[in-house]
Amino acid sequence: MATNSVSPEVLAAEKLVEEIPAKRKADLTAKAQNRWMPKNFYASGISECDRQMVHSLLDWDKRPLADAGLQAIFEAGKSEEARIVRMLSELGYEVIAQQNPIQIRHPKTGEIICTGKIDGKILVGRSAVPMELKSMNPNAYARINSVDDLAKSPFYRKYIKQMQLYLYGNGEEAGLFIISDFRNIKVFIVYLDFGLCEQILKQLERCWDYVKAKKYPDPIDRPDVCQYCPFEFLCTKTTVNQGASFLESEELEQNVARWLELKPMKAEFEALDEAIKGPLKDKDILNAVIGTKYQIVGRKQKRTTYDTNLLTDEQREAIKQETLVTVYKINALEETK
Known about the structure:
Helices cover 47% and strands 16% of the residues. The protein is an alpha+beta fold.
């Protein structure tokens, strides 16, 4: 009588289906658990909030640990940097001074208050042009077409400050940003701005003085900055003096767990949405059949906007309305330990 048997190859394949993702997640999680005590500020982390800067040194051990997903993004970014350097070499450019360090010292004490490493320099004749390599998701990449676009976001303005310190620290007058979406690149020039450098240096000195005194500047009220701050839970005025409320709700707990699962998909959806609709918008296509299964139909509609830049300061003040809102940040408890 014949018996149904499963071959060793099938059993091995079924085992790997579960084993590989589990091992990958465990590996990323283990790498993400590493913390180290910084000795000074980093050029790549010049925030627009002095308090965040001070927290980064005084409360480094309270910074939430990265999860496996974020660690995977870090690793992808490092791999992309190496790929771009190889690409430049294949195009005939010589890249030197990779990870060349800079040091910024306090003008009064001589202490090293900020360090950084530039991604490299491209040799052009007798000149060596500093470069910084930045990778981002396709949705963000599509919006960034100049240094001015980087300056529109407090998150990306850190890149500009980082480059300014590198130019200042190396005595260079100009450098390059090479931006990547892991497939394409854009190249922007950045000129040394002594005025901006002076502001950054003053901020570093000011924040260092707070660190030495073990004191904190006042919190700022900037949602566009606070949403990216890993220390927001330490300084938000409306929560810092409140004890935690312990809620027993199985439904709420399940909803939060599902929310955390879906959160990474939002960025992927937005990137795909732009990748699909962007080319159609560029060519003004309103009706497109994709292959044999899909159709995309667009329509033009009027949208009314108001340019407040045309108003005087008095007019803006007259129509300004301030509303107190509550903003929540959801964390997994094991990630904040």
